[in-house]
Design goal:
Strand order of the largest sheet: 8-11-12-15-14-13-9-10
CATH superfamily of the largest domain: predicted glycosyltransferase like domains
Distance between the termini: 58 Å
CATH architecture of the largest domain: Beta Barrel
Radius of gyration: 19 Å
Structural class: mainly beta
Oligomer: single chain
Strand content: over 45%
Number of helices: 1
Length: 225
């Protein structure tokens, strides 16, 4: 696998420091031979990340075509803010992305905010926007054209499902489509880069139940007609 295709400064990745424990990082530096990289923690929770020199971990990059997993060893650790100096030990392994159905205009409340570091993670900064569609892999917001964000921008995202449960995740802007769905608006397409699988399952479960409910309403309307 050609790692230079993926590993570059600014890339949003998830680092699995132990089984089931994943944290969002951005890549700050990549050596010319792509063997040594430095990653910066996006959250202000460095005291909760238990990692030390010599630890082996996994760097996970979630792309539209699947998941890329890099094995690495910790060379050095810096704090305040947390930085990991990593040495890659294996080539990337690729897993095909799971396909999920996408529901148009789901009954959810969703908010987002662009982030560049721990100070940008405050809930008070989250912006609410109408949702065009939602799946287990991503979401599309309808925003004003002047609020467009460049591809690759990390987003703190909260999705409130109909039962009141809130799912928090970190997404990445894939593209902005101007004048879509109407003139003067843009479609902000976001891929879920850092998300707990249980939260993904909650989103999928919500969409499945809403789809069944919509189908039931259509059948009732058809019978009355």
């Amino acid at each position: 696998m050609q790692v230079s295709k993926f590993l570059k400064p600014g890339l949003l990745v998830s680092i699995e420091v132990s089984s089931g424990e994943n944290w969002p990082f951005t890549i700050g530096y990549v050596s010319e031979d792509f063997k040594s990289i430095i990653c910066d923690l996006l959250l202000d929770h460095h005291h909760q990340v238990e990692v030390k020199s010599g630890n082996e971990l996994a760097i996970v990059y979630s792309a539209e075509d699947g998941i890329y997993n890099f094995k690495a060893k910790v060379s050095d650790v810096e704090y305040d803010p947390l930085k990991l100096n990593l040495t890659l030990t294996e080539d990337a392994a690729h897993t095909q992305r799971r396909e999920f159905f996408r529901l148009i205009r789901p009954f959810v409340r969703a908010r987002y905010h662009a982030i560049s570091g721990p100070k940008d993670m405050s809930d008070a900064k989250l912006i609410e926007a109408p949702v065009k569609d939602l799946s287990g892999n991503g979401i599309a917001f309808i925003i004003s054209t002047e609020d467009e964000l460049p591809p690759g921008t990390p987003l703190a995202t909260k999705i409130e499902l109909s039962n009141g449960r809130v799912v928090s995740l970190i997404g990445e802007v894939i593209r902005c489509i101007p004048n879509e769905p109407v003139f003067g608006k843009s479609l902000l397409c976001v891929h879920f880069s850092v998300i707990e699988e249980r939260d993904r399952d909650r989103i999928i479960g919500h969409l499945f139940r809403e789809q069944l409910d919509r189908a039931g309403r259509k059948r009732r309307m058809y019978r009355r007609g």
